[in-house]
């Protein structure tokens, strides 16, 4: 078995040599020639039954070679036998609930807050015909019933960075499959399947793509669980576009380097922000007291590159003063992003429930990118200190002289 960085670079590329190419190919076909219609029918039936491969792709809603390469690469990084990609992270969440609950006739979900606001809203909306019991990690066993088809957790949690002991939650869930949203940690820092999770979910829009230019989701799991997910994908049409599969697969090659670099910046910014007079508190697993169970170093290989801070001033006013940090939802991009969960990503979560799960109205979520940490600190410091910075494009402190030396 190869090590993480090697797997990130080479995963899913095993057929490139036979194709005679070096870069990942993009197959944009929507349909495929089927000279033998009977064989084509057998292939279609195989896909409808949940197969990963068949004699012909037949049609792009059933199978795409570019997407399949990305799925193999992600499965290799998560240590699972399969992965199934979707058109968005929410499509992936929806498919897991449908496969684990709707198809099995077990319409009850147990969920631990906080979760991504979209996931929380989906589970509480009744849109999928399931009912949800929200509980704490230590009370999962009490919430499980004979009708429970799925336990849903996210760690580190969105947006307050709570850490959950995955193995402990799996034990409390018993025979009920557990899905872990691994978007914040990525396969670089955490592999929930090795701890007993049945499904490992990613919003590939974030770190996997890594450049803010692709929308997608993916679920890593055992092959026997992947079949129903593919069936849901085929019937609902929640497919990932081949260009999205290509961009996320390409992103995996640099994923370890990006996560490690952004994490270093997050650790330093969390330390400085914790002492800033404009900050009420900071949440990041690297800070003293933030990881009482000692999960960083055991369950996780690092604290990650997302942090949360509660401002003493109106968070909306703080965000308005930022000049370098991008005020936008999403995370995991090469540039640093900040957003106000109560107003945006978690707006549809009832206020009382949101507050009770550790997401106060003055919380900001900061996804640290690859900029120089001193530039990020200067921008955050002035915004939190109440000074108004002129919003303009950032310039290098060494500017043209540095470029002249390069060229």
Condensed summary:
The protein is an alpha/beta fold.
Overview of the molecule:
By secondary structure, the protein is α/β, with parallel strands linked by helices. It has a seven-stranded mixed sheet, with helices on both faces. The protein is built from 15 helices and twelve strands. Helix 1 (4-10) runs antiparallel to helix 11 (242-273) and helix 5 (89-102) packs across helix 10. Mean pLDDT is 94; it is low at 388-393 and 395-407. Helix content is 38%, strand content 14%. The two termini are 41 Å apart. Strand 4 (148-154), helix 8 (166-173) and strand 5 (178-181) form a beta-alpha-beta unit.
Q: What value does the average pLDDT take?
A: 94
Unreliable runs? 388-393, 395-407
Walk across the major sheet and give the strand order. 1-7-6-5-4-2-3
Number of continuous helical runs? 15
How would the blueprint of this fold be written?
Layout: H1 4-10, H2 16-19, H3 37-48, H4 65-78, E1 82-86, H5 89-102, E2 108-112, H6 117-125, E3 131-135, H7 140-143, E4 148-154, H8 166-173, E5 178-181, H9 186-189, E6 199-203, E7 217-221, H10 223-236, H11 242-273, E8 279-283, E9 306-311, H12 315-320, E10 326-327, E11 337-339, H13 351-356, E12 363-367, H14 373-385, H15 399-406
Helix pairs in contact: 1-4, 1-11, 4-11, 5-10, 11-14
